[in-house]
Amino acid sequence: METRKTTNTLLLILVIPVVFYLLKVLDFIFIPLTAAMFITLLFLPLMRWFKRKNIHKGFAIAAVVAIIFGALKLSAELISLSSSEILSADNSFFEQAETKINGLILSLEGFFGVQRGQNENVLSYYFPNGGSLESFGDTFKSLQSTLSTTLMTIFFVILLLVESINFESIMNRAIFKDRRHASIKTFAKIEKDIIKFVKVKFIVSLLTGIGFTLACLAFDVSFPIFWGLFAFLINFVQFIGSVISVVLLSVFALVELDPTGTLAFFIIVITGIQAAFGGIMEPVLMGRTFSVNVVTVLVMLMLWGFIWGIPGLIMSIPITVFLRIIFDQFLQTQMISNLMSGPGSRKE
Predict the structure, then answer these.
(1) Spans of all domains in the chain
(2) 340 with 292: CB under 8 angstroms?
(3) DSSP letters of 158-189?
(4) What's the predicted TM-score (pTM) here?
(5) Which of 43, 207, 234, 329 is 20 to 30 A (C-alpha) from 199?
């Protein structure tokens, strides 16, 4: 028995890197499939409501697809609005921004001892391929990949909703070995926790974005819609997103605000907005749903960010919650679940 246990452990150690390698290589399949699973969980209560009302499944699926495309349309309109906001800016703003950024870079170069020719342009020195056709080609490929991933995600959502791919059944057979009651109970908890997490994260991110927009308008910082949209989107990356939004907006505000007093007050305001919504409101609304400690969150962010890039950063926390709930159902893996859990968590 000891030999068999050791063999199984060694096989598991060998299999895990292979699994992660396949997830990275086949990301064009696994990213939209994983995203579709979480999106489907959000729409399952609506699908059950349609079923209770004896509404045909085809109409219900059409309604869900219409909601998804409506959300995509709204996102596209907001991106277009923020782009128009940037493009309509005066040339004087960009000249002022370039002057201040050059001055900031010169100060940093002096501090770190970087030697650069007097007549050498900053952008061409630090971004030698910034305006090349190769860079444009990379951008086009990125947009093409994003569109492809979005369409595949919608396709997988439809398959999951019509139960061509029954995730609950797969989980029952592969993980719980046909223990139907345990499978249903676990699936219900996964659905409840993921839905609550996404709802709270959406509300907090929306309020943060609105707060950043209002702060930019109050202090007369350019592109308030863009910064609000950026704060809303980046806030879905747990912990890191809030820091990135505050730092980037603070650096940008250097261009227009007086660094002696107004800039400091502006930074205090946007930091307060982020702290109020992300540091106070989010934990209160989340309750015990998000019972994952900080170390686990950071490790999973790095892991899934490395494997899947930006989509991995966004989906890392739902994946972590999913894994923690699964690990908690078996005696052999409950220790892992306890290590992942936050300090105030408890068994339900």
Answers:
(1) 19-89+133-165
(2) yes
(3) HHHHTTSS-HHHHHHHHTSTT-HHHHHHHHHH
(4) 0.82
(5) 329
Q: Which two three-digit tokens encode residue 169?
A: 């059944």
Tokens 């150690």 belong to residue:
13
Q: Give the whole-number percent of the chain exceeding pLDDT 90.
A: 30
Residue 182 pLDDT class (50, 70, 90 cuts): confident
- Say which residue the tokens 């839905």 belong to: 195
- The amino acid at residue 34 is T
Please name the residue that has the structure tokens 């290590």: 339
Tokens of 140: 């086009």
CA 243 to chain CA mean position, Å: 14
How far is it, in rounded angstroms, from Cα 144 to Cα 200?
Answer: 31
Q: Calculate mean pLDDT across residues 269-287.
A: 88
Q: Which long-range contacts (CB under 8 A, 24 or more apart) does 302-308 make?
A: 307/20, 307/23, 307/24, 307/27, 308/23, 308/24, 308/27, 308/30, 308/31
Residue 12 has pLDDT above 80, yes or no: no
- CA 170: distance to chain centroid? 26
User: With bands split at pLDDT 50, 70 and 90, how would you rate the model's confidence at 133?
Assistant: very low
Alpha-carbon distance of 340 to 172, in angstroms, equals: 23
Q: What is the pLDDT of residues 310-324, one digit of tens each?
A: 899 999 989 998 998
Which of 49, 24, 59 lies closest to 308, judged by CA? Answer: 24
Q: What separation in angstroms does the CA of 139 have from each of 96, 130, 333, 347? A: 27, 11, 43, 47
50, amino acid identity: F
How far is it, in rounded angstroms, from Cα 315 to Cα 311? Answer: 6
